[in-house]
UniProtKB/TrEMBL annotation:
Name of protein: NFACT RNA-binding domain-containing protein
Domain NFACT RNA-binding: 1-110
Annotated region described as Disordered, given as residue ranges: 151-172
Superkingdom of this protein's organism: Eukaryota
Protein family (similarity comment): Belongs to the CCDC25 family.
Classification via InterPro entries: Jlp2/Ccd25, NFACT_RNA-bd
Length: 215
């Protein structure tokens, strides 16, 4: 089961979620989205909390209010961390999470430690935690199916983009050909290269005169 929470409305439409146990965390680690941001209490056992950003957004787009909701939820879901003041919460993009066969269930590392950020949480803010808990929804989710659907949509979007690109390129090619034809036609129509009816008649008369001279 996965627990879903809604962030404060004023920061936008964002969903925060976490697994109900460490085995569910394994599924979240495995089937995350590129837009997901992972949160955890530093050096203390806690829930693995995720924030799903909007497509195209990064960790730099997390507002102060949205960050507070995430870190308060992480702190509240740590048996030890919930009792402590001045604790550090670490967070990083899901794409930076590293999982190896030698790691225990729910344990993760990082591909690039420099991408891991730290925020100090002074104390639990009950008002924030209670507001988030009122939005909590527990749902059995097929995480693999969600990821597969995401990949299918992305593949379809890329195909559509390629079709649009080819269409634009074909239109540009046809337009270039049309302009080239116009320029070529104009080259034949310049006054210096054109022969008038009068010139044709004059040339015809001259030819007749030459014929008469030879007769």
């Amino acid at each position: 089961m996965v627990l879903y929470f809604k962030a404060r409305p004023e920061v936008g439409d964002y969903t925060i979620f976490m697994g109900i146990d460490k085995h569910e965390n394994e599924e979240l680690i495995k089937y995350g989205f590129p837009e997901d941001i992972w949160f955890h209490v530093d050096k203390v056992s806690s829930a693995h909390v995720y924030l799903r950003m909007n497509k195209g957004q990064t960790v730099d787009d997390i507002s102060e209010g949205l960050l507070e909701d995430c870190v308060q939820l992480v702190k509240a879901n740590s048996i030890q961390g919930n009792k402590m003041n001045n604790i550090d919460i670490i967070y990083t993009p899901w794409t930076n999470l590293k999982k190896s066969l030698s790691m225990d269930v729910g344990q993760v590392g990082f591909f690039n430690p420099k991408l891991v950020r730290t925020v100090r949480v002074e104390k639990r803010i009950n008002e924030v935690v209670n507001r988030l808990n009122k939005t909590k929804v527990e749902r059995k989710t097929d995480l693999k199916a969600e990821r597969d659907a995401l990949h299918a949509n992305e593949k379809a979007e890329k195909k559509q983009q390629m079709r649009e690109k080819k269409r634009r390129e074909e239109l540009q090619r046809l337009e270039k050909e049309r302009l080239a034809d116009i320029r070529s036609y104009k080259g034949f129509m310049v006054p210096e290269k054109m022969t008038s009816n009068r010139q044709i008649a004059s040339a015809s008369n001259s030819f007749k005169e030459l014929e008469e001279d030879f007769m």
